[in-house]
């Protein structure tokens, strides 16, 4: 184990023998860090944090701090759980959960750039990218392969579905459905995330089917309930189409509206 002499590590912390810890880090008791994880300088990892394998943690971050919730009692036993193969850049902040025995959860293969803030009870999936100064409020849920641009703010309890893209400086106050690109104050759907879908190997036929789904929901004159009923008449929808329908059916906050872009095309 490569531990810099200026690092302070509680003897009750559990670090795999291959973990590297740089200068001036503080690791408290009841912390577990898995194989191959590298921690640079000036990082604080607080009690209740679980970090998996082969993560890279850049300087200045805080992991597992107390939730910024005035009703939270510090003696409540909660956690921060981080998966494998993530890369967190400088000054990233994670807060642990607020519910006894529960955790803020981050999956695998995520890349978070500098000054990203992950609040209490957030759940982040896999293969997501969050650019500088992204802010996720409490209880936000991020799916898989989501791209969040710089200085985006996501309201508490919002869900952002798989393959969504949030443009820079966007204010997100409602749920963001799969494959959508959202921009504005408040955020509105401006197009589909075609680049993300192509990179995911989603065929042109399926991309066109997804585009038609959004046209029915937003531009058919139906309300949401009527639009979903119309879409469900298809006896054999593509799994990607079914994912969109199910997202709208299960939204509790409501889904972001669509902004018509004159002369534009969702597919190009």
UniProtKB/TrEMBL annotation:
Q: UDP N-acetylglucosamine O-acyltransferase C-terminal domain location, by residue?
A: 175-256
List the InterPro entries.
Acetyltransf_C, Acetyltransf_C_sf, Lipid_A_LpxA, Trimer_LpxA-like_sf
Name listed for the protein in its UniProt record: Acyl-ACP--UDP-N-acetylglucosamine O-acyltransferase
Alphabetized UniProt keyword annotations:
Acyltransferase, Lipid A biosynthesis, Lipid biosynthesis, Lipid metabolism, Transferase
Which superkingdom, per the lineage?
Bacteria
Provide any one GO MF term from the record: acyl-[acyl-carrier-protein]-UDP-N-acetylglucosamine O-acyltransferase activity
> Which is one Gene Ontology cellular component term of this protein?
membrane
Enzyme nomenclature, EC number: 2.3.1.129
Top EC group: transferase
Q: Which GO terms describe its biological process?
A: lipid A biosynthetic process
